[in-house]
Design goal:
Blueprint: E1 2-9, E2 12-19, E3 23-26, H1 38-47, H2 55-58, E4 65-69, H3 79-92, E5 100-104, H4 114-121, E6 131-133, E7 142-147, E8 153-157, H5 158-161, E9 165-171, E10 174-175, E11 179-180, H6 194-201, H7 226-238, E12 242-249, E13 252-259, H8 263-276, E14 277-280, E15 284-290, H9 304-311, E16 314-323, H10 334-341, H11 346-355, H12 359-373, E17 375-379, E18 393-395, H13 398-409, E19 415-418, E20 425-428
Parallel strand pairs: 3-19, 4-5, 4-9, 5-6, 9-12, 14-20, 15-16, 15-19, 16-17, 17-18
Antiparallel strand pairs: 1-2, 7-8, 10-11, 12-13
Helix pairs in contact: 1-3, 10-12, 11-12
């Protein structure tokens, strides 16, 4: 018997036809029950902070409070909904508007427009406050805070460090390097120097040349994840007073945590696991994953999350078919493109990455390294020739991709299907 699935592709969908007996599992997020409004969830978290006094009791009149917020690439975190309630808490503690500094944690991202700042603050706050963008290259606004045990020099935003209280806000999702976003990530990379960010992210590589990515640096891993641990040490140097983080599902806030920057984040990570961590019984010969459509597949660079999650469900040497329309091409910057197009072997790419590490280069390298370990086929609008050096096949339709795989490996392949591959993290039972 044949089954049909509609998988998102850009603004449209593609139909997957597959024999029912081949399907191991459809890997989807776990059901979420919305029994409280977003405002109720936010107020509950603020009223019941983890290992901390409520924010209103931490602050004192006359103190300068730095509130670190996401940048525009994280607008899904619903800042316009929760920031007014953060300000309300500060007002209860006697903090005036003039003593609140909103700092956008750009990390290494571009600066933002006034319109984007207003979108982040939301309609209730946009006319009361302005936003200061962190600039990782502005040495005059960076202060040295110490060095981690991993050797990372920690340079952080001087204005943030001059505040009497530092509040970190944002959202928690799986992150391919840090394990999870949120929490400590709003210190490093959020308000750190470029040098600090690159030193931290370079821990993503195995110390031994030729061994590629460090096996413990991956989505959903914390206690043995070097990047996560290094970020925690950097956060400890910054001494944040309080965090507020949300977890989202289906476009709305599904949970929230507040309190101590480490233990509250621990609880938030468990919320993410409960929604987007999906247990699988075994890895598959074939994984068919959609990034989830636009904007998650706007370019190849954005599709890295889907690739990383699909790898977790694929047998060594198995096949991944990833739907990523990528109408804007490879994406990222020139470094991504050079890493993919400018070298003939994975080892050459690894050497170039070790010599001059950047996140963009790592993303390009990871695609190529994946194609060396697995058969990687993209259903994409990208031109087929563009990824030939990377050993990545590009086809225009899902049917064409399946025909290629079945002709080479036979049609009786145990298969996982990931309709929202950028979000769901398969976890082997």
């Amino acid at each position: 018997m044949e089954k049909e699935f509609l998988l998102k592709y850009g603004q449209a969908e593609m139909t997957l036809h597959i024999a029912a007996e081949n399907i191991l599992q459809v890997i989807e997020s776990n059901p979420v029950v919305f029994d409280k409004t977003e405002t109720e969830l936010i107020r509950d978290a603020l009223a019941n902070p983890i290992d901390s006094l409520p924010l209103s009791k931490l602050v004192r009149p006359g103190q300068k409070v730095g509130v670190v917020i996401p940048d525009i690439t994280r607008v899904w975190q619903r800042t316009g909904v929760f920031l007014p309630l953060i300000v309300e808490e500060l007002e209860k503690g006697g903090i005036r508007d003039d003593d609140i500094l909103f700092i956008s944690a750009l990390g290494t991202h571009r600066s933002q427009t006034t319109a984007e700042h207003r979108l982040l603050l939301g309609p209730q706050l946009a006319d009361r406050f302005t936003v200061t963008d962190h600039d990782c290259h502005d040495r005059s606004n960076l202060v040295y805070c110490g060095q981690t045990s991993f050797g990372t020099p920690v340079w952080l935003n001087k204005q943030a460090m001059a505040c009497d209280q530092l509040v970190l806000t944002g959202g928690i999702v799986y992150h391919f390097l840090a394990g999870w976003s949120g929490g400590k990530k709003y210190i490093l990379p959020g308000i750190a120097s470029y040098e600090t960010v690159m030193a931290n992210h370079a821990l993503s590589l195995n110390p031994a040349r030729g061994q590629g990515p460090h096996p413990e640096v991956r989505s959903g891993n914390d206690n043995t994840n070097l990047i996560h641990l290094d970020m925690l040490e950097a956060a400890a140097l910054a001494k944040p007073s309080f965090i507020f983080n949300v977890v989202t599902a289906q476009g709305r806030i599904a949970g929230a945590v507040a309190g101590h920057y480490q233990t509250a984040h621990d609880q938030g990570r468990r919320l993410v696991d409960a929604i987007d961590g999906v247990t699988i019984r075994e890895k598959a010969d074939l994984v068919i994953a959609s990034a989830g459509g636009s904007p998650k597949d706007v370019n190849l660079y954005q599709s890295i999350k889907t690739l990383i999650n699909a790898r977790e469900a694929t047998k060594p040497g198995g096949t991944m078919i990833i739907l990523t329309e990528s109408p804007e091409g490879l994406g990222g910057n020139a470094e991504v493109q050079d890493m993919i197009l400018g070298y003939d072997t994975v080892l050459e790419r690894e050497d170039a990455l070790r010599a001059d590490y950047s996140i963009s280069k790592y993303v390009g390298y990871y695609f190529c390294e994946s194609a060396a370990k697995f058969e990687l086929i993209l259903v994409s609008s990208l031109e087929p020739e563009i990824l030939q050096k990377a050993n990545i096949k590009i086809v225009k339709t899902l049917d064409e991709a399946l025909a290629l795989v079945y002709a080479k490996r036979g049609s009786a392949l145990k298969t996982h299907i990931m309709p929202h591959g950028a979000n769901t993290l398969p976890r082997l039972a």
